[in-house]
Write a structure and sequence with these properties.
Layout: H1 2-17, H2 24-53, H3 57-75, H4 84-106, H5 116-119, H6 122-130, H7 133-153, H8 164-214, H9 217-224, E1 231-245, H10 247-252, H11 256-276, E2 280-285, E3 288-293, H12 302-318, E4 322-323, E5 326-327, E6 329-344, E7 350-354, H13 356-366, E8 373-375, H14 377-383, E9 387-397, E10 401-411
Parallel strand pairs: 6-8
Antiparallel strand pairs: 1-3, 1-6, 2-3, 4-5, 6-7, 8-10, 9-10
Helix pairs in contact: 1-2, 2-3, 2-4, 3-4, 4-6, 4-7, 6-7
């Protein structure tokens, strides 16, 4: 029931104060202004009737004027599409002017029931709407100045000698209403702060996830730790290149959507296998896929890890993958040796590897056989005790000359 009442009140204030063409933030601020002004009206009516009963007619006329001011502020000003900062400053000015008027007409602080807590609402209200330090400090200065002026003039103001019971009631009512209003404003500030932190946390989580999709976890941690340049040398690591055989010519005659869906499916499966084998995906170039083992965290079994991954990838293609009715196969090449790795770029980070080991791995792939895993002598020397390999013999490798390579067959039982 309370939630329904709050929603109805919000809808009512939105209709009378907010402009649907404005941003949600401005709309909420206008609703807050309208709500504060409407909430003050019953209090002013109570003052008006009490002052009339006590024959304080000067206070009565001030009350009538303030009610008119609040009604104009709520029902007229929003329709004029005034700037929200102007509205906030007008609200602050109105509160301070009526504070001074009531206080002087009542004969000072005591007879006015100590209106200070209530009309001190001007400064936090303007700060809430403007959220600008300069304006907030200005209204704080104006409020303090008003208090000092009334304090200085207090001895010269006429005494109305109101009954102590009336003064006590006024003080109680003013303090309670002021406390409620301050509480609502602070709750709004707290909610805004919590929402800002929540959004910030979500954005940080998204950035973290995006960074980990681009860079290895350890490299991302080093970047966040403040390292400007990340460049490492590795005495021994393994690189694997995978290429989809005939995928490029087939994609020229296949529907683009079908091609992208298939490529995404294949590479997503590769990503899963890479994660399971605790190696690092380095890059994808067209229909090519590049993986490294032994970096950024060195491991002695890097060649064995990447060989096991290669066998699983080959088995995946043996299950049958096709594009537009044509079978798709892969060609895999692996090499091991020293290399360098690091992060390049400032706005778009990229973790990459360099060196002759990388170039040779690429040549192992380009000179391999569809459906086979070609490895270099360096890789063979590292895995020959645990994997069955078949010597391919000497082959002429572009840019490398004659090389002795092997075809990885399976893991030894």
């Amino acid at each position: 029931m309370i939630n329904n009442m709050v929603r109805l009140l919000y809808a009512f204030l939105f209709r009378i104060a907010a402009d649907p063409t404005e941003s949600q933030d401005v709309g909420v601020k206008k609703i807050i202004l309208a709500g504060v002004h409407l909430a003050i009206i019953p209090l002013i009516l109570a003052y008006l009737f009490l002052s009339y009963f006590l024959q304080e007619f000067n206070v009565v006329w001030i009350g009538v004027g303030q009610i008119i001011w609040h009604l104009v502020f709520v029902f007229v000003f929003p329709r004029l599409h005034m700037n929200i900062q102007w509205l906030a400053n007008a609200a602050g000015a109105g509160l301070l002017i009526f504070f001074l008027s009531y206080t002087f007409a009542s004969g000072g602080f005591e007879n006015s029931g100590y209106l200070l807590p209530l009309f001190g609402l001007a400064n936090p209200l303007v700060a809430l709407i403007n959220l600008r330090a300069r304006q907030s400090l200005f209204w704080l200065f104006m409020h303090i100045t008003s208090i000092l002026v009334v304090s200085f003039l207090q001895p010269y103001l006429p005494s109305h000698n109101l009954p102590s019971t009336v003064v006590s009631i006024l003080l109680s009512v003013n303090s309670i209403i002021a406390a409620v209003m301050y509480f609502c404003i602070f709750i709004y500030f707290i909610n805004q702060r919590d929402e800002a932190f929540r959004l910030l946390h979500n954005e940080q989580a998204k950035s973290e996830k995006l960074l980990l999709n681009i860079l290895p976890k350890d490299i991302a941690a080093r970047l966040k730790g403040g390292e400007d340049t990340i460049a490492d040398s590795y005495e021994s690591a393994s690189i694997m290149f995978i290429d989809l055989v005939n995928f490029t010519p087939l994609s020229a005659t296949s529907p683009p959507k079908e091609m992208v869906i298939l490529l995404s499916k294949i590479f997503s499966h590769f990503d899963q296998l890479v994660e399971e084998h605790h190696v690092e995906k380095i890059d994808t170039i067209g229909d090519g896929y590049m993986v490294a083992a032994g970096l950024p965290v060195p491991r002695e079994d890097h060649a064995e890890a990447i060989a096991s991954l290669a066998l699983e990838i080959r088995s995946y293609f043996k299950k049958g993958i096709s594009l537009s009715g044509h079978s798709i196969n892969c060609r895999i090449g692996i090499n091991s040796g020293p290399l360098m790795a690091g992060v390049i770029g400032r706005t778009k980070f990229s973790y990459n590897v360099w060196g002759d080991t990388v170039n040779t791995a690429s040549r192992m792939e380009s000179h391999s056989i569809p459906g086979e895993i070609q490895i270099s002598e360096a890789t063979y020397a590292l895995i020959k005790e645990r994997f069955n390999c078949e010597a391919r013999g000497p082959i002429d490798v572009k840019g490398k000359g004659i090389m002795h390579t092997y075809l990885l067959k399976n893991k030894m039982e």
